[in-house]
């Protein structure tokens, strides 16, 4: 039976009662769970004795014009999914439990958080890094699990953990996709049918570049042109970025070397902003 912990004191009491030596895994989420989240839970269960998930829609990582108010919150369904997946505990705090009214301390990573989504969503990764470090301090997990779907988020958290000597091992889980290739996301429910029909093109643009890479193309500009061409003619898709980057540093790459690269994209379909990515090579 899953235990729902709503306060920090409940969380701490639960944490303190775990058997010494028991390996604890944390899967942080914002809820509206789907098979992508559950794949992280499954991964956590292979690494850990005890698994805790958090659901917290963190206002600090949303911009003033973003979808905080309309973000889906199907909490009963989420709890049933976590229970079925064998999660031991759910940390489900209210806003005031996480942030005091005069909270004035934040975590700012100043390199990998700057390009891509960081440039387009000011303050986003400051919000992410701050809440994730708080969740680590509250939960004190041995492992924490994050989806490759949010590749830049993974890079920011790995850098934070390294730079601040946080004693948590970060594990990345693979992207889970719908049958037609669209990366699963809590935001996919916003898509109208016509937008949903276009959405698999995002992944197809990554695959088109991947095919050219497999055929020997190593020039990043040429691969970008191939990927963008697939999306450029679509009136319903507005590409924010479609870029080839170093997998770790997220720095731009001109010629893809033996370490391969990350292709990352963000696009609007109507008012809905979707991201996706693919690793090439290695
Ligand atoms: P979110 O609830 O969107 O903050 O996501 C919580 C965690 O689930 C993050 O580590 C995400 O990267 C991960 N995640 C979201 N979508 C997917 C997906 N399609 N496949 C794998 N992991 C995902």
Describe the structure.
The chain has 282 residues and is of the alpha/beta class. The protein has 2 domains: 3-173, Rossmann fold; 186-280, Pantoate--beta-alanine Ligase, Chain: A,domain 2, CATH 3.30.1300.10. 37% of the residues lie in helices and 20% in strands. It has 10 helices and 9 strands. The protein has helices at 8-16, 35-47, 75-84, 95-98, 117-120, 124-139, 151-163, 193-198, 200-214, 220-232; strands at 3-5, 24-29, 50-55, 89-91, 143-147, 169-173, 237-245, 261-269, 272-280. It has a 6-stranded parallel sheet, with helices on both faces. Helix 6 (124-139) crosses helix 7 and helix 9 packs antiparallel against helix 10. The longest helix has 16 residues, at 124-139. The termini are far apart. Adenosine monophosphate (AMP) binds at residues 29-30, 36-37, 39-40, 146-147, 149-150, 173, 175-176, 183-186.
Short structural summary:
The chain has 282 residues and is an alpha/beta fold. It has ten helices and nine strands.
Question: Tags for this entry?
Answer:
282 residues; alpha/beta; Rossmann fold; 2 domains; six-stranded parallel sheet; three-stranded antiparallel sheet; 20% strand; globular; binds adenosine monophosphate
């Amino acid at each position: 039976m899953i235990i729902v912990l709503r306060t920090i004191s409940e969380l701490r009491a639960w944490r303190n009662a775990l058997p010494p030596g028991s390996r604890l895994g944390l899967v942080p989420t914002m809820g509206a769970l789907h098979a992508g989240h559950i794949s992280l839970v499954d991964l956590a269960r292979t690494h850990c004795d005890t698994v805790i998930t958090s659901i917290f829609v963190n206002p600090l990582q949303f911009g003033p014009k973003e979808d905080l108010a309309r973000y889906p919150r199907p909490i009963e369904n989420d709890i049933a999914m976590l229970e079925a997946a064998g999660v031991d505990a759910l940390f489900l705090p209210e806003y005031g439990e996480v942030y005091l009214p005069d909270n004035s301390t934040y975590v700012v990573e100043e390199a990998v958080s700057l390009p891509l989504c960081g440039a387009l969503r000011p303050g986003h990764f400051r919000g992410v890094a701050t809440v994730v470090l708080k969740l680590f301090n509250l939960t004190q997990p041995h492992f924490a699990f994050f989806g490759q779907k949010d590749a830049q988020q993974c890079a920011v958290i790995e850098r934070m953990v390294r730079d601040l000597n946080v004693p948590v091992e970060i594990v990345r889980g693979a992207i889970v996709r719908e049958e037609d290739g669209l990366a699963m996301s809590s935001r996919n429910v916003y898509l109208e049918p016509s937008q949903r029909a276009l959405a698999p093109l995002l992944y197809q643009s990554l695959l088109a570049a991947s095919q050219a890479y497999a055929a020997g193309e190593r020039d990043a500009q040429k691969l970008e042109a191939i990927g963008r061409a697939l999306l450029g003619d679509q009136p319903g898709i507005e590409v924010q970025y479609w870029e080839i980057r170093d997998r770790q540093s997220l720095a731009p790459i001109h010629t893809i070397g033996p370490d391969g690269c990350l292709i990352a994209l963000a696009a609007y379909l109507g008012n809905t902003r979707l991201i996706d990515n693919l690793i090439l090579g290695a």
